[in-house]
Amino acid sequence: MADSSGSFVHAGPRVTGTGIGDAEWRARVDLAACYRLVAERGWGDLIYTHISLAVPGEPGRFLINPFGLTFDEVTASNLVKIDIDGAIIGDSPHEVNATGFVIHGAVHAAREDARCVMHLHNEAAVSVSMLKDGLLPLSQHALRFYRDLAYHRYEGLALTESEKVRLAANLGTCRAMLLHNHGSLVTGRTVAEAFCLMDMLDKACRMQLAAQATGAELVLPSAELCEKTFRQLTADPEPEGELEWPSLLRRLDRLCPDYRT
Length: 261
Prior knowledge:
Protein name: Class II aldolase/adducin family protein
Number of helices: 8
Pfam family, one: Aldolase_II
Shape: globular
Family: Belongs to the aldolase class II family.
Largest sheet: 7 strands, mixed
Organism: Roseomonas genomospecies 6
Radius of gyration: 18 Å
Helix content: 25-40%
Number of strands: 7
Domain Class II aldolase/adducin N-terminal: 29-209
Strand content: 5-15%
Order of helices and strands: HEEEHEHHEHEEHHH
């Protein structure tokens, strides 16, 4: 069950002597768990891409992974606190990839509800981002994004100030985006919501690629049915992933409980 900060309870023991409050520690545990789950699914890209999370009760402060660590090395205590410009807050033995936070910073600044921003180079999503028609409404998983998926054209490696404005405008109120020729992005009101949306988006992309690879004629639901199913899948106003997240944490506790340290 999520608390008022958007983090989940049962976070485990906090490292003592850190000056980190309970709400921030719960947020750190959730974010570290998300990094480990991404690593487990093979969505990582060496030491690149990021998942960022707003620090509860500290406007303009965010948690992000240390630059140079793979996602399976991220723990609650080695996450780094930064400001909206990617500058490190407080003492940390780790560096951060400030350039890599530019996309995240643009989204956090534009969307108060985007407490967690996940940007990945997962292969299925990158592949679908290369297709002119993008994600098609071929599966129930894809229909979750029928009216909730944005696109942003590729403009090179580094985002300029003007591109940040365009990216935020293209995202609009959507919770997910495919960056053409580049990768995927999802936003969540909680870490759980961001992860579960990315899981669904990745599956939708993989299913589409598998179907297209057969070369057979594809079956597309009618527009009316797509609209109906999307409304059904998004009818609950509460953040998605609340039921799934505790079970995912239990799995991590069996496989790699050090993420909580």
